[in-house]
Amino acid sequence: MIFYICDGTPENFFTAVFDAYNTSECMITSDKELQLSLGCATVSVQTDLKKCERVRRGLKKYDKHAEEDILAALRSFNTNKEQICFLYIKRLLAHKKPIRNAFSLPEVVDLDTILHQITYEIHRFTGFLRFKETANGTFYAPYSPDNDITDLLMPHFAARFRAPFIIHDVKRKIAGLFNGNEWIMTYVGDAEICLSESERAFESLWKKYYKSVNIKERPHEKQMKGYMPVRYWKFLPEKNG
Amino acid sequence: MIDAEKLEILTESAKYDVSCSSSGSKRVNSAGGLGNASVGGICHSFTPDGRCISLLKILMSNDCIYDCEYCPNRRSADVRRATITPTEICELVIGFYQRNYIEGLFLSSAVFGTPDKTMELLIKTVEMLRREYRFNGYIHLKGIPHADDLLIMKAARLVDRMSFNVELPSEKSLKLLAPQKTKQSLLLPMKNLQNAITYDKVNKVRRKDAVIPAGQTTQMIIGASPETDGQILKLTEALYRNMGLKRVYYSSYIPVVQSNLLPTVGAGLLREHRLYQADWLIRFYGFDVNEIVDEGENLSQEYDPKCAWALRNMHLFPVEVNTAPLATLLRVPGIGAKSAYRIIEARKFGKLEFEHLVKMRVVLKRARHFITCKGKFYGVENINQVKNCLLLGDGGEVTEQLSMFSEKSVALSALTGEV
Ligand code: SF4
């Protein structure tokens, strides 16, 4: 078994697909905690834009949405994501026609599953993200999503807000910055935040609202946690104090 | 800024209104404006009762001149009263919206002063939000019965959705329990709004000027009065078909008010849940109420309405997954819209076997008794045995009402009634 080790960038992954395409027993991964058993070899993949381009062109030829799907799937927190994408690509190239709806194929179900996790998480954070108003009028939202979705969330908020804002993925140390007009992505380690005067007041009104709107006579914690998993609570003021 | 106690009073007064959805509108942001609407709706939080918070749901006042028997805010009740100003509401909405706590506002009010005066202040509030604060987020406005038609039409041009609550499932119960509201005061404005929507459509009024782009909804209390599920669903069907409503909400009665006209026990979540499931069948799967339940009957507690229907119609089953049309697949217990779609798509690539369905994550616990795959049947033959299997599959929910959503797949459908 040969493991093709990727660096996490899409270009590197597409190069790996090219290199691994005709290897019979192999896996592609970017998992840093990979445990190798005896008899396994590793190849560390060197990005080659020509190879990358050929794979991309191959995808486009048979399904114009496939590349977009693969790029999205590579953002997954699933450590198997490269392998899932690889198997999907192989199947598509062999089939020579779109396979996105061939749900009886395991490759299709697997890719669909991680894509669904990502779109679902994006959708959830359009609701669960919480901004705080800072002293200079910028709104700041720290969060820690499972998948790498910050740049996919930015357009949603850029369309609805006019004030500058920052969405900060504190685990990946990246942030989207919006200046009221355009947005960019950048690296941000720790942010030092000075809150506006009215911030506390709004936060406590929100907590009051959250408490008052609940119907005590009909407790259903299990359902609440099903819809709003506990791992997301850390950044929700209504779930803290 | 609004006082915390007032917020508490006016939220607690509004919380029994079950509608909270922010869906159905595609309002876009304007230059220098704040907010837009997301057509599928967005949930911003969930409360310990398992409900979603999407809109800031609040009354402008709970100081009511009416005396609806079931209502904690009725004139004769001894409760804390509060009224807030349009400015206070606007500041709260904007502050919450900027922090992404909410998707918009669901504004309602007790009738204070006169219906017209109340309606005017509600309009003033939404007008302020739209014009002064340039707010383009979602607004759902509750209509005040007996308010002037023109006022209602004016409101409808400013907001995304409106609702007049039918309150109770029959005119008789309405007379008894909400004596100041008449059937006409609720149904007439609904009809007028429907006509206005049709007018805008026919005359191609631009979306941003059109009346209530997200349509109308309504709500009724279940279990405070003696109507059967059959009667309730008949009314529901009529509201969908004749009034073009987007959604009918059911609120199972909770005895928060002491009254000898009202039962002392609540209606329970299971009944409400079954009604939502039946409602789903009517809206999305092409069922007529008559197929689901007789007018004088209640829905089965043991089986969800689709299962119950299938058990009464065993002669129509099993159906072959490789050939059954969509409408037929949707009638198979356990197969929902998503599974049906997957089956239809997947079978274009080759005949489906049972194992394929498993891999496609079609839930087969119930479905297997009603389908064949390439002619092969994987369920049990004997109908009594089928009934037993289905009962067990439902997790003994009759005795254990509160944990009935414990299964994850069920929990996710609990708010919608999807079956
Ligand atoms: S009109 Fe009836 S239901 Fe509405 S607040 Fe007044 S008493 Fe309550």
Structure description:
The complex is a heterodimer of chains A (241) and B (419). Helices cover 43% and strands 14% of the residues of chain A. Chain A is α/β, with parallel strands linked by helices and 241 residues long. Chain A has two domains: 2-120, no CATH class; 129-239, no CATH class. A five-stranded mixed beta sheet of chain A has the order 4-5-6-7-8, with helices on one face. Chain A has a three-stranded parallel beta sheet with strand order 2-1-3. The model of chain A has no long low-confidence stretch (mean pLDDT 94). By secondary structure, chain B is an alpha/beta fold. Chain B folds into two domains: 4-226, TIM Barrel; 305-414, no CATH class. Chain B contains 16 helices and eleven strands. Chain B has helices at residues 4-12, 86-98, 115-131, 149-156, 171-177, 183-202, 229-243, 269-284, 289-292, 305-312, 326-329, 337-346, 354-359, 364-367, 383-393, 408-413; strands at 45-46, 52-53, 55-59, 104-108, 138-142, 161-163, 216-222, 247-252, 319-320, 371-373, 376-377. In chain B, the strands form three sheets. In chain B, strands 3-4-5-6-7-8 form a six-stranded parallel beta sheet. A three-stranded mixed beta sheet of chain B has the order 9-10-11, with no helix packed on it. A two-stranded antiparallel sheet of chain B has the order 1-2. In chain B, helix 7 (229-243) packs parallel to helix 8 (269-284). The two termini of chain B are 45 Å apart. Chains A and B meet through helix 5, strand 4, helix 6, helix 7 and helix 8 of A and helix 1, strand 1, strand 2, helix 2 and helix 12 of B. Bound molecules: iron/sulfur cluster.
